[in-house]
Design a protein that fits this description.
alpha/beta; 6-stranded mixed beta sheet; 24 strands; binds nicotinamide-adenine-dinucleotide; 16 helices; single chain; 7-stranded mixed beta sheet
């Protein structure tokens, strides 16, 4: 296998002899089983958000290189689709073993490029690993259906076949998990794949691809190309790509959804969120406050399932002091430091944007209960840190409520009744996740039935489903009709062929019949 260890700043690629190794290293593309340095003249810096160090440089891949990746995937498809499903599954079995073996290296890379704490980075890898484990049972997941004797001597059956070349476009916030939502399911179904990692943290995807090759994935089955808008548009437009999986913001997601579907591709697009918690007055105080603090500030609020807004039925006052105390006690530090609860946000631009959304809340009349904007982290003074921030008396017309903040900022709202709280949540344009905290089964059941959100938590703050279910955001948080992973994920990466066979004994002779056949 190739050796590409971004975290230790060493690269050796098939194209680059070790004497030409660079510092910072250049992130290679993976085309036809080879890690190749791009011939592009434009590279972007991949920056450690805790230190501003340049970890590596990422190419804006040229169109020729993109075409080469697609054609490698296209050429690999005929023999890969005919490779026995058991063989494909065994490669996933190996891959899950290697991901476990290299868990610490992967997590360190995630922390270095993305900023989250090492423990959280392990979770990022682990939640992706679970999708690989699920793909190990693909033969059962991909089974077709059979009805015997639909007419005399005639049977009908359906089989789920791979589509061909599929592509995936990833966001920065889960650099290991989200690539693993995509390619393991796609390739185990028999497709070949072109992956475009986030330009902000591509290292984990490259390391995972190395492991996939080590596990025996044949050349060309998985390819990786780097870049931003241009290469994404090339993916949407390319006639050889049959399906596009996207995870990221709404601006990019809706653009990709319409551009790729206009070219006849199937698209699944997971997008932004504003996840609400409704807290009933009867909720368990201690457990609820811990859940709100963990889900609001974990990963510095940069999870698509972060709980960013709390609606307190009966008012937030009784909860505020303790919420602020526990949020204040969190340790903000570089993700590699053992005591860190939350690390930096991804970029200087993200930090500025979050600061200005906090300020807009204050300007529009919210009460700033806790302000994390002026935090300085010793030894990491140039990191993009924001401390836990809490705004109360937030209302639905405020900018900070309408926009996805994607930072360690918790908004507190109030409602007089569960009905009013549900109506606030349902009027929000996003529908990724929502949670209720209560000890009343009646309230929980009403919430479950009436809430417009794809993933519902009952005393569970971040209800991200495991891979035997699917990730089921709705409203503006999702476009498409087949969700990521689980049965829906397998359906997304396969199409149905329905076969009708006639093995009737026709020795008695038959007549020409021009009428529409009926049984
Ligand atoms: P982003 O949309 O900026 O980037 C995602 C990908 O799209 C990147 O690979 C980027 O290169 C590409 N891209 C960005 N703008 C583009 C454009 N205009 N045209 C073509 N390509 C473009 O998202 P991000 O900042 O990396 O990720 C954060 C967002 O992702 C948040 O909104 C978050 O809620 C969302 N997210 C959603 C889920 C989910 O499952 N619903 C999961 C994780 C993240």
């Amino acid at each position: 296998p190739q050796v590409f260890a971004l975290a230790s700043s060493r690269i050796s690629t098939a194209a680059e002899p070790s004497s030409k190794q660079r510092n910072p290293p250049r992130v290679p593309n993976l085309i036809g089983g080879k890690f190749i340095e791009s011939k592009s003249s434009t590279f972007l810096d991949v920056i450690n958000p805790a230190t501003q160090e340049v970890v590596s440089q990422l190419p804006l891949t040229t169109n020729e290189e993109f075409k080469a990746a697609v054609s490698a995937a296209k050429n690999a498809f005929p023999s890969w689709r005919n490779t026995p499903i058991t063989t494909r599954q065994r490669i996933m079995l190996k891959l899950q073993e290697f991901i476990r073996r290299d868990m610490d290296k992967l997590a360190l890379n995630v922390t270095t490029e993305q900023g989250k704490t090492l423990k959280d980075a392990q979770g990022d890898v682990f939640r992706g690993l679970e999708v690989v484990e699920h793909a190990c049972g693909m033969a059962t997941l991909q089974m077709g259906e059979y009805v015997s004797n639909v007419s005399h001597g005639i049977d009908t059956y359906s089989i789920r076949e791979p589509l061909g070349v599929c592509a995936g476009i990833c966001p920065f916030n889960f650099p290991a998990m989200i690539p693993l939502w995509m390619f393991p399911v796609a390739v185990t179904c028999g497709n070949t794949f072109v992956l475009k990692p986030s330009e902000k943290d591509p290292g984990a995807a490259i390391m995972l691809a190395e492991l996939a090759l080590e596990a025996g994935l044949p050349e060309g089955v998985l390819n990786i190309i780097h870049g931003t808008h241009d290469v994404v548009n090339a993916i949407c437009d390319d006639d050889d790509i049959k399906a596009v999986s996207f995870v990221g913001s709404n601006v990019a997601g809706m653009h990709i959804y319409s551009r790729a579907s206009a070219k006849g591709k199937r698209v699944q697009s997971n997008m932004g969120a504003k996840n609400h918690a409704i807290v009933m007055p009867d909720a368990n105080v201690d457990a609820t406050i811990n859940a709100l603090v963990a889900a609001g500030f974990g990963a510095a609020g940069q999870r698509c399932m972060a709980l960013s807004t709390v609606v307190f039925v009966g008012g937030s006052k009784p909860w505020e002091t303790e919420l602020v105390e526990r949020a204040k006690a969190l340790k903000v530090n570089a993700g590699t430091e053992p005591d860190a609860d939350l690390g930096p946000v991804i970029s200087k631009q993200a930090k500025e944007r979050i600061h200005s959304l906090i300020q807009s809340g204050v300007d529009e009349g919210a009460r700033l209960l806790l302000d994390g904007r002026s935090i300085v982290v010793p030894r990491y003074e140039s990191g993009n840190f924001i401390g836990p921030t809490i705004l109360s008396n937030v209302t639905s017309n405020m900018e900070c409520y309408k926009e996805e903040i994607f930072g360690p900022v918790l908004l507190l709202m109030e409602a007089d009744s569960l009905e009013e709280a549900i109506s606030i949540v349902n009027q929000n344009k996003y529908g990724n996740g929502a949670a209720i905290f209560t000890t009343s089964g009646v309230a929980a059941r009403k919430f479950q039935t009436e809430i417009d959100a794809g993933q519902v938590g009952i005393n569970v703050p971040i209800p991200v489903p495991l891979p035997f279910f699917s990730f089921t955001g709705n409203k503006a948080s999702f476009a498409g009709d087949l969700n990521f992973y689980g049965k829906a994920g397998v359906n997304f990466y396969t199409q149905i062929k329905t076969i009708t066979q006639n093995w009737k004994d026709s020795t008695g002779g038959s007549k020409v019949n021009l009428a529409m056949p009926t049984s």
